[in-house]
Amino acid sequence: MEIAVRRAGPSDAEAIWKCYTAPLAVRNTLQMPYRSLESVREQLTKCGEGDHILVAAIDDEVVA
Question: Is the whole model's pTM more than 0.85, yes or no?
Answer without folding.
Answer: no
